[in-house]
Write a structure and sequence with these properties.
The complex is a heterodimer.
Chain A: H1 8-18, H2 27-43, H3 47-51, H4 81-85, H5 101-104, E1 108-109, E2 112-113, H6 118-130, E3 136-139, H7 142-145, H8 169-175, E4 186-189, H9 193-209, E5 219-221, H10 225-231, H11 240-257, E6 261-262, E7 264-267, H12 269-275, H13 278-298, H14 303-307, E8 310-314, H15 320-341, E9 354-357, H16 370-384, E10 389-391, H17 404-420, H18 434-456, H19 460-465, H20 468-486, H21 515-529, H22 532-548, H23 553-561, H24 566-577
Helix pairs in contact in A: 1-15, 6-8, 8-9, 9-11, 9-23, 9-24, 13-15, 13-18, 15-16, 15-18, 16-17, 22-23, 22-24
Chain B: E1 6-12, H1 19-30, E2 34-41, H2 43-53, E3 57-62, H3 71-80, E4 88-93, H4 97-105, E5 110-112, H5 118-133
Parallel strand pairs in B: 1-2, 1-3, 3-4, 4-5
Helix pairs in contact in B: 1-5, 2-3
The chains are: A mainly alpha, B alpha/beta.
C-alpha cells in the first residue's frame, strides 16, 4: 500500500526538529528577565491590565490574533538569530530577499491604470510615466476580464468600465502605442488562467509584430485559479481542474518562451478583499504555490526552473504590525517550503517576491479624504515588510474609478514615502523588535496550520471544487459585517465620530462617452477584414489541443496572430471543457 | 403571520464583485425572506425571472460602473411589463453621488452605497413592500 503522503507541515516539523537551535538569550539572561518581570507584574502593572494582558485587535480584514500588553524576550524565549532571522538576502530571508533591499532597488511604483478605450488608457499610462511611475499595471474592463467581446450582448453597457477593453491584438497595439515593450516592465492584470491564456498571447503577438524578441519582455500576468473560481462572480465557469490545467499550461509555455516574465502571481490580494483574514489570504496563495510546483514536477520540470519566477500579491489592511509581520512570516515560510519540501537548490527559487496593493475594501465613502491616510499607513506597513512593488489605492474608490488627480495623489504618496521619509535606507528596520519577531513567528505558524488544513482536505484544487473555500470566505465576511455594524470593529467617520455635516462635493471620475460604439465598429471591421479561414483553422487547432491535453498556449498565440477575438477563444474553452457551477453561498 | 417577502437578487451584467450581494442575501434570509439569486444577468432576463417567480422585490448589484447603462434598461423593461407598481426595485453598489439621485429618478425605490448596514437594507425593503402592496 502506498504510504500516505506527508503534509507540508509534517515535512517542515521533521526537518526543523533535526536542527539544533542557538537561542539568542542565555538561560541566565532569561531567568533574570523572568524574575524582573514577575516582580514588575505584581508591583507595577495594574490589576486590570494584568487580567486583560492579552488583547485582540478588531480590525477590518484582521486575523484576530491576541496581543500581549508588552513584549519582552520572554515572549519568544528560544529566538535564534540565524534560524529565525538571518541577515538580509540570506536564508531564511525574514529580513528581505535582497541584501541591500531598497538601497539597491527602490520598490517599483506600479499604479493600476485602465478605463475606456485602449486610446484612453494609453493616454493615462503616459501621464503616469511622465510623473515618475516606474512600472505599468494594466487593468482590463469587465467584459474583457470575463472574456466576452465588446459586441457580445452580455457586454452591453459595460465596455470600458473598471478597466480598458481589449478584444484582439489590434487593441493591444493601440494600448501600447509609443510605449517601449523592451524597456518598461508591464504588469497585465489578466486575473484568471483562462484570460491569461487569451490576452497574454495577444501581447506576445504584438511584440513579435514590432520585432521585439520575447526574451526581452519583462513583466507579469496574474494567472490565478483562486481568482477565476472562488472570487469571481460570473455567468459561466469552467471547472476548477480545467482552470488549474490552463494555469499550468500558461506557466509551462511562458517559462520556456518568455524567460524574464513572471508567469503567475499567486494572488492573495483579491481573496482577502473578497473578505478574509490576512492568514487565510496567505495560506491559500501558498497552497496554490505548492500545488503548482507539484504539477510542474509531474510535467517533468525541475523545481528550480519554475520556482524562481513565482511571485505573490498581497493586500495590507489596517492592523499595522500584523501587516509588517505577515510579509516577514510568509517570506520565511516560503523559504522553508522551498528548501525542505521541494529541495530547491537555487536561492532565488526560495524568494517570496511580492507586489502589494493597499486594501480597497478598507476605504470608506464617508469623508473620502480620510482614505488618503488609511492607504498611506497600509503602504508604510508594506514597505516596512519588504515588498518589491506597490500600488496605492485612491481615496475616491468608494465612488468610482480614480480621477487623474486622485491617481496622481496615490503616486505622490509613494514618492513621498520613498524620497522624503528615509524609510528605504535601512533594511528591515523593525527586525529584532520583541513584538514583531513574536508576531512573525505566530503568524507563520497560523499560515502553516491553514495550509495544513487545506492539504488534509485533499489539497488546493479539491477545497475549491468542494466549495469549502468559498464557504469559509463567505462566513468570514458575513461575520465581519456584523462586527462592523455592532461597532466592535471601529471605522472613523463611519461608526465612530460620524459627522452629520453635509460633506463638500467630491470630484468624481466620469467614463469617456461612446467607447462601446467605437469598439463595436472596430470589431465589425476586424471581423470583415481578417482572413476568416485562418481564424477558423486557428480556433479548431486550439479546440484539439484543449481536448488532447496538450499545452494550449502555442495554439492560442496562433489565434492571436490570426486576429481571433477574446470571446472566440473563451467559446472554445466553454465548448471543450464544459461549464461548472460554483457553490451557492447562502 | 404575514406572507414571506420574496426577493429576486441579481448581479447586473458581468460585474465580478459579489461580496455585497451575498451579504445582502444572507441578511434577507436571516429575517425570513425568500431569496431567488440568479447571479450575473441582463435586464430582460432579470425581469422575466421576476415575473415567473412572482417576486415582491428585485434587488440588483453593480460595482463596475454599469449601474445606469444597465440599470436604466432594467427599469425600461420593467415598465413595459407593468411591474413598477407592484414590485419594489432596489440597487446597491459603488456609485458617484449624482448617480445615486439619478437612480432614484429613474425608478429605483432604494439605492444603497458602501457602508449601508444590514438593518438599513432590511427595514427599507420591508417598508417599501408594505407601502407598495397597501
Amino acid at each position: 500500500m502506498k504510504e500516505k503522503e506527508k503534509t507540508t507541515k509534517e515535512i517542515l516539523a521533521e526537518e526543523i526538529a533535526t536542527g539544533e537551535r542557538i537561542p539568542l538569550y542565555s538561560p541566565a539572561a532569561l531567568e533574570n528577565i523572568r524574575r524582573l518581570s514577575d516582580g514588575w507584574m505584581l508591583s507595577t502593572v495594574r490589576e486590570k491590565d494584568r487580567e486583560n494582558w492579552l488583547k485582540t485587535p478588531r480590525t477590518v480584514l484582521g486575523s484576530n490574533i491576541p496581543r500581549e500588553m508588552l513584549y519582552t524576550p520572554l515572549s519568544h524565549p528560544d529566538f535564534d538569530y540565524q534560524k529565525d532571522l538571518g541577515n538580509s538576502g540570506e536564508a531564511p530571508f525574514t529580513r528581505g530577499i535582497h541584501t541591500n533591499m531598497y538601497r539597491g532597488r527602490e520598490f517599483t511604483m506600479r499604479q493600476l491604470t485602465g478605463f475606456g478605450s485602449p486610446e484612453d488608457t494609453n493616454g493615462r499610462m503616459k501621464f503616469m510615466l511622465d510623473h515618475g511611475a516606474t512600472g505599468l499595471n494594466i487593468l482590463f474592463d469587465i467584459p474583457t476580464i470575463q472574456m466576452y467581446d465588446s459586441d457580445d450582448p452580455f457586454s452591453q453597457g459595460q465596455v470600458g468600465m473598471s478597466g480598458v477593453c481589449v478584444d484582439s491584438v489590434e487593441d493591444m497595439a493601440i494600448l501600447f502605442k509609443d510605449i517601449r515593450l523592451d524597456e518598461i516592465t508591464v504588469s497585465l492584470v489578466t486575473h484568471y488562467p483562462s484570460n491569461t491564456a487569451i490576452l497574454f498571447p495577444m501581447f506576445l503577438a504584438l511584440a513579435e509584430e514590432r520585432g521585439i524578441p520575447w526574451e526581452k519582455l519583462r513583466g507579469s500576468v496574474q494567472n490565478d485559479t483562486t481568482l477565476e473560481e472562488v472570487i469571481r462572480s460570473g455567468a459561466e465557469f469552467i471547472a476548477p481542474r480545467d482552470c488549474f490545467r490552463i494555469q499550468s499550461d500558461n506557466i509551462e509555455f511562458i517559462r520556456k518562451n518568455v524567460p524574464q516574465w513572471n508567469f503567475i502571481t499567486l494572488n492573495g490580494y483579491n481573496l482577502r478583499e473578497f473578505g478574509t483574514s490576512g492568514v487565510t489570504e496567505m495560506a491559500v496563495a501558498v497552497a496554490n504555490g505548492i500545488a503548482t510546483l507539484e504539477e510542474m514536477k509531474r510535467r517533468g520540470y525541475d523545481v528550480d526552473t519554475v520556482a524562481d519566477r513565482l511571485s505573490f500579491f498581497w493586500s495590507p489592511a489596517s492592523d499595522f504590525f500584523e501587516e509588517v509581520a505577515r510579509l516577514r512570516a510568509v517570506r520565511r515560510l516560503w523559504y522553508k517550503i522551498m528548501k525542505y519540501r521541494f529541495h530547491a537548490k537555487n536561492s532565488r527559487s526560495m524568494w517570496m517576491r511580492c507586489h502589494v496593493q493597499t486594501s480597497g475594501v478598507s476605504l470608506v465613502r464617508q469623508e473620502p479624504l480620510n482614505n488618503v491616510i488609511r492607504a498611506a499607513y497600509h503602504a508604510l506597513s508594506a514597505v516596512l515588510g519588504g515588498a518589491q512593488s506597490l500600488h496605492i489605492d485612491s481615496y475616491d474608490e468608494a465612488y468610482s474609478v480614480p480621477t487623474e488627480e486622485a491617481a496622481l495623489l496615490s503616486l505622490r504618496t509613494q514618492q513621498i514615502l520613498q524620497e522624503e521619509t528615509g524609510i528605504s535606507d535601512v533594511v528591515d528596520p523593525l527586525g529584532g523588535s520583541y513584538y514583531i519577531e513574536t508576531l512573525t513567528s505566530d503568524i507563520e505558524r497560523r499560515i502553516l496550520d491553514e495550509v495544513d488544513e487545506i492539504e488534509q482536505k485533499g489539497g488546493y484544487v479539491v477545497v475549491i471544487e468542494s466549495g469549502q473555500l468559498h464557504r469559509k470566505i463567505s462566513s468570514y465576511f458575513y461575520n465581519q459585517q456584523k462586527e462592523i455594524e455592532k461597532g466592535n470593529i471601529k471605522i472613523v467617520a463611519y461608526n465612530r465620530y460620524r459627522s452629520e455635516a453635509v460633506p463638500p462635493p467630491i470630484n468624481v471620475f466620469r467614463y469617456p462617452e461612446g467607447v462601446e460604439e467605437r469598439q463595436r465598429g472596430k470589431l465589425a471591421k476586424l471581423r470583415l477584414s481578417r482572413d476568416n479561414e485562418k481564424v477558423g483553422a486557428a480556433l479548431m487547432a486550439l479546440k484539439e489541443a484543449c481536448r488532447k491535453g496538450e499545452n494550449i498556449l502555442p495554439l492560442s498565440v496562433a489565434c492571436a496572430r490570426a486576429r481571433c477575438t477574446e470571446g472566440e477563444l473563451f467559446k472554445v474553452f466553454k465548448e471543450t471543457f464544459g461549464l461548472w457551477k460554483p457553490p451557492a453561498l447562502f | 403571520m404575514a406572507k414571506k417577502i420574496k426577493v429576486l437578487l441579481a448581479k447586473l451584467g458581468l460585474d465580478v464583485h459579489n461580496r455585497g450581494i451575498i451579504t445582502v442575501a444572507k441578511a434577507l434570509c436571516d429575517v425570513g425572506m425568500e431569496i431567488v439569486y440568479i447571479g450575473n444577468s441582463l435586464p430582460r432576463e432579470i425581469v422575466q425571472t421576476a415575473i415567473q417567480e412572482g417576486v415582491d422585490v428585485i434587488g440588483v448589484s453593480s460595482l463596475g460602473g454599469a449601474h445606469l447603462t444597465l440599470g436604466q434598461p432594467l427599469m425600461d423593461v420593467a415598465r413595459q411589463e407593468n411591474l413598477t407598481d407592484s414590485v419594489v426595485f432596489v440597487i446597491g453598489g459603488v456609485f458617484p453621488p449624482d448617480d445615486t439621485l439619478r437612480l432614484k429618478e429613474i425608478g429605483y425605490n432604494a439605492v444603497f452605497t458602501p457602508g449601508a448596514t444590514r438593518d438599513e437594507i432590511v427595514l427599507s425593503i420591508q417598508g417599501l413592500v408594505e407601502k407598495k402592496i397597501a
